Amino acid sequence: MTSQRDLDMVHLRLILVSGKTQDFTFSPNDSATDIAKHVFDNWPAGWEEEQVSSPSILRLIFQGRFLHGNVTLGALKLPPGRTTVMHLVARETLPEPNSHGQRNREKTTESNCCLLF
User: Fold this and answer.
1) Residue 43 neighbours by CB under 8 Å, 6+ apart
2) Are the C-beta atoms of 14 and 22 separated by less than 8 Å?
3) Which of 23, 55, 62, 67 could form a Cys-Cys staple with 37, CB 3.0–4.6 A?
4) Is the Cα torsion angle 57, 63, 67, 73 positive or negative in sign?
5) Could you tell me which residue, 114 or 14, shows the higher pLDDT?
6) What angle do CA 101, 106, 108 make, to 5 degrees?
7) pTM over 0.85
8) Strand partners, 12
9) Which backbone phi and psi does 26 adopt, to 5 degrees?
């Protein structure tokens, strides 16, 4: 029988650049930093070639965006009891939040057209 606690948990399938996957279960209160530390401390068998030197360089990507350290799974409104896929990559630094969106807004205000007569 499944308990309410199990239903409230968030199931993640993490995919490495190599294509290797592993399933993990977390609380909705866990942050991206918590997840990176947990994965680092419980590095799966079969991922030895991708082992990193520190949890601080592990980054999660969800729906094409890097998750910053303090973002919780609950804030992402992931469906509890279902498996959500995220990518796990090693990267020293992250782009600033919304920096990509800012560049896009700047581009929309520029005009690069010319008139030919």
Assistant:
1) 51
2) yes
3) 55
4) negative
5) 14
6) 95
7) no
8) 24, 84
9) -135, 165
